[in-house]
Design goal:
8 strands; binds pyridoxine-5'-phosphate; alpha/beta
Length: 241
């Protein structure tokens, strides 16, 4: 079953390296092509409001490149929603965003923002974009995601991946498995991501009904030693094994 799981590679941190020095390199399209040659099924990028890594020009260039499906991670804000509607990526994953955070820290509070999210989901889905909501493995959030018309969720795997002790990791993994069963039962596509690396992937693969994994930082870090294509290939083969 695990061999069918799709791998989207998040290349935000290729752009992080570029933006650190404002150089024209490393080239984002060359990175996407290396991911493709390594066996990636899609490219994921997060156009943050502060544009700390991926820039508007990057997302439009990736769309034009078009050799792999594009998944745009984004906050539910008017400016970014307009860009998404112009861009028309294959998929959008709506995430919470706080300016000072190092990375996306938790899942969306779908219940607190249900009206605005419902409107955004409807607008994006009318434009034939598959919309996923990034949520913690929490029953209420998942049920609400389904109620407001999402067709997909991405389970936040950070609590499992970053767990300090094995018993905490096990309990977080159990929550992810339970959440995946619930979401699948509600007819939602189940994706997962955040903090996944070459060591913790084994546990992730125990989660049932996984459709797509979104993996970024771990792969880009491995690429420092083996190159991006090989780093993707290694993750691809772990997922398939
Ligand atoms: N999925 C979502 C929704 C994210 O926000 C991120 C981080 O941008 C990822 C996956 C990838 O996480 P990581 O870089 O830790 O693999």
């Amino acid at each position: 079953m695990s061999s069918k799981i799709r791998l989207n590679v998040n290349i935000d941190h290729v752009a992080t390296l570029r933006e650190l020095r404002k150089t024209p390199y490393p080239d984002i399209l060359a990175a996407a092509e290396e991911c493709r040659l390594g066996g990636a099924d899609g490219i994921t990028v997060h156009l943050r409001e502060d544009r700390r890594h991926i820039q508007d020009a990057d997302v439009f260039a990736l769309r034009k490149w078009g050799r792999l499906p594009l998944n745009l991670e984004m906050a539910d804000t008017p400016e970014i929603v307009e860009i998404a509607l112009q861009l028309r990526p294959d998929e959008v994953c709506i995430v919470p965003e706080r300016r000072q955070e190092l990375t996306t820290e938790g899942g969306l509070d779908v219940t607190a923002h249900r009206e605005s999210l419902a409107r955004t989901i409807a607008r994006l889905q009318r434009a034939s974009i598959l919309v996923s909501l990034f949520v913690d493995p929490d029953e209420v959030q998942i049920r609400t995601a389904s109620d407001i018309g999402a067709r997909c969720i991405e389970l936040h795997t950070g609590a499992y991946c970053d767990a300090a002790r094995p018993e905490i990791a096990q309990s977080e993994l159990d929550k992810l498995k339970h959440a995946a069963r619930l979401a699948h039962g509600l007819g939602l596509q189940v994706n997962a991501g955040h903090g996944i690396n070459y060591d913790n992937i084994r546990g992730i693969l125990e989660i049932p009904y996984l459709h797509t994994l979104n993996i970024g930082h771990g792969i880009v870090c491995r690429a420092v030693f083996v190159g991006l294509r090989e780093a993707v290939r290694e993750m691809r083969s772990l997922i398939a094994s």
